Each structure stands twice: as C-alpha cells, then as structure tokens.
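Human: If only I could read backbone structure tokens as easily as an amino acid sequence. Take your time, and here it is.
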Amino acid sequence: MKLKKLAPKQAHLLVHKLFDEMYEKQMSIATMSHLSGVSATALTDWRSRTYPNVPNLEACFAVLGYQLTVVPVAKKTE
C-alpha cells in the first residue's frame, strides 16, 4: 500500500490535516472510503482537483476520531 503524506499546496488546510492523519494511521484512501462512505474518487480529487463538502469532511474526520467545530477568533487589540 503506497501512502502519500502531504496534499499539494493548493489543497485546503483541512485536506492537508486529513491526509496527514491518514498517513500517521497508515490508512489508505480505499480504507477511508470504505469506513467513511466517501468515494475513493472524491478523496483523490480533494488532493488537486476539487474541494470537499462539509458532510464528507465530517465523515472522514469522524473515522479518525475527530469532530469539526467552529471556534471564535480572538479579537485583535489595537
């Protein structure tokens, strides 16, 4: 099984995190596809051709034990 650690520069930051975590857990795209229900083609395309939608990202991160959340940004002091 050939695993790629990094997504290309143009990929979204969350895609980078997803593939980094998959690499750390030695998880292939085929395995992630099977466990998350997201097609292998979609996962592959996120690396260079398309951006993921939120439900698909949530499904993949859930497989890895993560949850997507919204957090407030600290206000800049002037």
Remarks:
- The chain has a mean pLDDT of 88.
- The CA atoms of residues 32 and 60 lie 7 Å apart.
